[in-house]
Amino acid sequence: MAIHHFEEFNLAHQPTSLPSSTLSLILVTWITLPANVLKLNFDAAINSFRNRGATKVIVRNSKGQILDWACKKYNFIINPLVLESLACRDTALLAVNRGFHFIIVEGDSLLVINVVKNLVIPQDIQQVIHDVRQLSLSFTSISFSHVKRTCNLAAHALVSKFLYNSHFSCNRVVQQMFVFGSLPV
Q: Locate the RNase H type-1 domain: which residues (predicted)?
């Protein structure tokens, strides 16, 4: 089963899903992290036609190797800010559930990253950001940072594939539950 998920992950992560003009502009370098630190990238996507959104989290080790990933669909939620904040919360929940202690959380929503860092919170995401802050207390070390879309392409490609391709899933669980994919290292 894990091999099947890994194949789906690789298929969704192939650069051919991006326009060639975009590929020529992308030059992203991985900066090695301390050995005990994990980097978690999150993103969200919207399918207005089906009136739903989805979130995706990708976990990488200090060398940039993908260790784990999770995705979740949200029916009737198509507000980008709400979905990005839910993706941030889903990231913290995944990290708590997996027992991670030293993490860096990255997302391409500057507003969500800023409000998690104690800036004024828009009313429509106050409860979600409160949840993120409470979950943050579970970690020995946690930091939040904004990254450009080009540094978050893996998460974006996967959440888009998960949202738009009904055949792409880890397993056939209830849509509102997390869909986890454990990848062989």
A: 41-160
Side chain identity at residue 36, one-letter code: N
Whether 117 is in a domain gets the answer yes
| Chain Cα centroid distance, residue 101 | 18
Specify if 124 maps to a domain. Answer: yes
CA distance 30 to 116: 24
> Residue 70 sits in which domain range?
2-12+31-182
Q: What is the pTM of this model?
A: 0.69
Task: Name the burial class of residue 74, with classes exposed (0-12), middle (13-18) and buried (19+) by CB atoms within 10 angstroms of its CB.
Answer: buried
Q: Has residue 40 been placed in a domain?
A: yes
Q: What percentage of the chain exceeds 90 in pLDDT?
A: 39
- For the chain, how many structural domains are there in total? 1
Strand partners, 70: 57, 180
For residue 16, count CB atoms less than 10 angstroms from its CB and return exposed for 0-12, middle for 13-18, buried for 19 or more: exposed
Residue 183, pLDDT > 80, answer no
